[in-house]
Amino acid sequence: MRLDKMLANMGYGTRKEVKKLLKTGVVRVDEEVTKDPKQHVDPEGNHVTVHEETVEYREFIYLMMNKPGGVISATEDEDETVIDLLIPEDQVFEPFPVGRLDKDTEGLLVITNDGKLAHHLTSPKHHVPKTYYARISGHVTEDDVQAFQKGVTLDDGYVTKPGELTILDANDQSEIELTIHEGKFHQVKRMFEAVDKKVTYLQRIQMGDLHLDQDLEPGEYRELTEEEVNLLQK
Length: 234
Prior knowledge:
single chain, alpha+beta, nine-stranded mixed β-sheet, four-stranded antiparallel β-sheet, 7 helices, 13 strands
C-alpha cells in the first residue's frame, strides 16, 4: 500500500495534507525518515510512526448505528445521511450502510467498508433474516399470521417469501414483530398493506444473529465487537 494512502486512511488528513506532512520529516518507516508519498509499505510488516507515535493500521471498520428517522441510508444525498452522523475519524474509512432502511424507519443499521461482508448480508441467495418491531393501524389477527407464513401478494404482484409474524398486542393500534428473509422496497409496509393495514412506526431490531444495542439512542452508534463481527460473518 502507498504510504500516503495508508496515512490518509488512518485519519492523518487528505492525500494532499499527508504529502505536506511527509515533507516535514516527521514520518518514519522502520526508523528511517521518509518523505516519499509513493513509497510502498506493508501495514502489517513495516513499523510506521508519525511524530514518533506508532501508526496502528486497520483495513476495515464495523459500526452499529441506531438509525434515527428522517435520515437517509446512503453515503451521499441532498438530505442528511447516516454517514453525516459519523465523526471524521470514522468517515476517513469511507464506510457505507449495509442495505437500506427507509427514511422514516429507525433501528439497526450496520455501517462498514468491508464489501465482502456487505455482499454476504445483502445477497438474496443468503437469505439473512431481518426482524422488525412495528406499530400497526388496525387489528392484527391470527389470519394475518397465517397469511404471512404462506407469503402475501404485494401491489406489484410479487409473492413474498414466508415471514414470521408475532403479535405483541392486538388492538386498534397493534404491536408486532416480523422476521423476513428478503428485502424488497418498502417490504414490511407493503406486506401489511396487502392485508389492509398500515404501518405507523417501524424499527429494525435484528439482522442475522446481531441484535440492536438498546443502549444506543437514535442517531448514536458504536463499533461492533469482534464477537459481533463474527456473528455477521457466519
